[in-house]
Specification:
Blueprint (H helix, E strand, L loop, with lengths): L1 H17 L50 E3 L5 E3 L8 E6 L4 H16 L5 E6 L4 H11 L6 E3 L4 H5 L7 E5 L5 E5 L7 H9 L1
């Protein structure tokens, strides 16, 4: 029982040691490395949240990158497979990160402008769910789903080692961009290039 409590704390400490809020740059990887899971996910539940569920195409088979389930910050089940068939932005953030707060307005704007054409999903980590919910409320980013990743499972799946980090997948699930975008600058252009 105690080992289960220490593992998330050790992961958080390790991530905090390795990261600096908003440091580093972005890259456009040649392949889709870092998107394959290290272990299979449990069966996913269907999302029934206020975001209308996933906005992917129901007839499209979900790529490996989207083969995971999680829970939103408001406690609802989220099935990433429902994102399949449309470009997807995964925004990895932490509630106490000023760089993340600086990206919030632009990320919400992109989510609104690309509604129905692309998915935007926040992946909150490195803190407790209450702080994650407060961040969403304080930043006005409640128009798109945010996952509560207290245990770091989604962060590990995408090999994320710092907060305020974007992973952009094309409609096939291939990673086309990953990195930090200070203030969210450049996010709109990157997503627009995928949605036409």
């Amino acid at each position: 029982m105690r080992a289960r409590t220490l593992l998330p704390a050790a992961l958080t400490a390790a991530l905090l040691t390795l990261t600096a809020c908003g440091s580093g740059g972005g890259s456009a990887p040649a392949g889709d490395e870092g998107t394959s899971p290290s272990k299979p996910s449990s069966p996913a539940q269907s999302p029934t949240d206020s975001y209308g569920g996933g906005s992917g195409s129901p007839d499209v088979k979900a790529p490996a990158a989207l083969n995971f389930a999680a829970t939103t910050v408001d406690g609802k089940p989220f099935d990433a497979k429902t994102l399949a068939g449309k470009p997807t932005v995964l925004w990895f953030w932490a509630p106490w990160c000023p760089t993340c707060k600086g990206q919030a307005a632009e990320t919400a704007k992109v989510a609104a402008n690309q509604h129905g054409k692309a998915n935007v999903v926040g992946v909150a980590g490195l803190d407790k769910n209450a702080a994650m919910r407060a961040f969403v409320s304080d930043t006005g980013t409640d128009s798109f789903p945010h996952l509560s990743d207290e245990k770091g499972e989604v962060w590990k799946r995408f090999k994320i080692t710092q907060q305020s980090y974007y992973v952009i997948l094309d409609q096939t699930g291939k990673t086309v961009y990953e990195g930090v975008l200070p203030g969210g600058k450049g996010l709109a252009e990157k997503v627009a290039a995928l949605t036409g």
